[in-house]
Structures are given as structure tokens and as C-alpha cells.
Design brief:
Number of strands: 6
Oligomer: single chain
Strand order of the largest sheet: 2-3-4-5
Shape: elongated
Radius of gyration: 17 Å
Distance between the termini: 23 Å
Helix content: 10-25%
Number of domains: 1
Largest sheet: 4 strands, antiparallel
Structural class: alpha+beta
Strand content: 15-25%
Order of helices and strands: EHEEEEHE
Number of helices: 2
Bound molecules: zinc ion
Length: 142
């Protein structure tokens, strides 16, 4: 049997959105900014930073991108292979105030963030069944 190389999927972080602390901010603003960035990082850890589909490599955004809206508000998927993504993001912060509200950017779910209808994590072997690897990779998260 042919050895299939595994792919590593990085989790998105605030820096992927260009978010960073201002160097000249006051100590209080630095402290609250760090807390906000930690909230953004926690939220984004459920997504990958890539602008291309994790499964088939299609470009997701833009006029000719392969993103297609789903029935649930803000959710969608790659129209080429069906891998799920989110197009609108509301990132919760302190005291339930959103840090970013309804921000439009397409990011696909990290493979470990996918759950079935019963809330159980989808095993990587099942992920290979649902989204057959299009470019000779297997789902493997390191
Ligand atoms: Zn795809």
C-alpha cells in the first residue's frame, strides 16, 4: 500500500487577522488588549488560517471563490467539496461584549473542531470518508 503523506493543519490566531497590540498603548490598554487578543485566539483556535479549502485546495473567497452559504446564518461550505466554513464571525469578549461583531471573513473549521449532530468529535478516519482526500493526503492533526 502506498504511503500517503499527512498534512498538518495550523490553528488560526489573532495575528492572522492583522490584530496586534499598539506599542504606545498605556499599561491598562496593554493589559485589556492582551485579554482581548487571548479571547480572539481562543475563538480562532476552532478555525484554520488558510484562504484555500483544506480538503480540495480551491480558493474560498472573492468573486470566483468556491465558498457557498449554507442554511444557518453565517455558515457555509466549499462548493467544490463541501468542507464546512464560517463566513461571519462574532467573537465574544469580556462581560459578553463582542470584540468583533459580524465580521465577514471566510475560514474553514479546524478538523478537530468538527462535531457530529450528537456533539461528538468526528474521527479523522470518518473525516476521510465524508471528505475524501482530493490531493493524496490523509486527515491527520499533529
Ligand atoms: Zn473544497
Amino acid at each position: 500500500m502506498r504511503e500517503i503523506p499527512a498534512r498538518v493543519f495550523r490553528r488560526a490566531v489573532s495575528a492572522d487577522l492583522g490584530l496586534a497590540l499598539k506599542e504606545d498603548a498605556s499599561e491598562d490598554d496593554q493589559r485589556s488588549g492582551m485579554a482581548d487578543l487571548a479571547s480572539v485566539d481562543a475563538y480562532l483556535s476552532h478555525f484554520c488560517p488558510d484562504a484555500e479549502c483544506l480538503n480540495c485546495g480551491a480558493k474560498l473567497g472573492g468573486m470566483f471563490g468556491s465558498f457557498e452559504w449554507g442554511l444557518t446564518h453565517g455558515e457555509g461550505h466549499c462548493s467544490n467539496c463541501g468542507y464546512p466554513a464560517r463566513g461571519y464571525h462574532t467573537i465574544p469578549g469580556r462581560e459578553h461584549k463582542p470584540i468583533l461583531n459580524h465580521m465577514p471573513f471566510i475560514r474553514q473549521y479546524h478538523p478537530e473542531a468538527l462535531r457530529d449532530r450528537d456533539g461528538r468529535r468526528i474521527s479523522l478516519s470518518r473525516l476521510n470518508e465524508v471528505f475524501p482526500p482530493a490531493d493524496a493526503h490523509e486527515w491527520e492533526v499533529v
